[in-house]
């Protein structure tokens, strides 16, 4: 998957109005709450087969940190 496609999909899944970039701090989003975190967990699991835990969510800040967790090799 291209990073731009991931950013677009993530924006839709998380239902955020702001355009996401790899530098976007997810926890600074107005829409960020526990439900949004669950949406992120579900999306990453369904799309990439990678399991995010609550502890992982605590460590993740930016979109790039999500990409790093998933693994750069899954992005072209």
TrEMBL record:
<dbReference type="Pfam" id="PF00550">
    <property type="entry name" value="PP-binding"/>
</dbReference>
<feature type="domain" description="Carrier">
    <location>
        <begin position="1"/>
        <end position="74"/>
    </location>
</feature>
<dbReference type="InterPro" id="IPR009081">
    <property type="entry name" value="PP-bd_ACP"/>
</dbReference>
<dbReference type="InterPro" id="IPR036736">
    <property type="entry name" value="ACP-like_sf"/>
</dbReference>
<protein>
    <submittedName>
        <fullName>Acyl carrier protein</fullName>
    </submittedName>
</protein>
């Amino acid at each position: 998957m291209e990073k731009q496609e991931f950013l677009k999909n993530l924006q839709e899944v998380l239902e955020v109005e702001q355009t996401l970039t790899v530098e976007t701090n997810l926890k600074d989003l107005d829409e960020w709450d526990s439900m949004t975190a669950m949406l992120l967990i579900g999306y990453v699991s369904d799309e990439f087969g990678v399991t995010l835990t609550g502890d992982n969510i605590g460590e993740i800040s930016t979109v790039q940190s999500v990409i790093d967790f998933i693994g750069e090799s899954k992005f072209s």
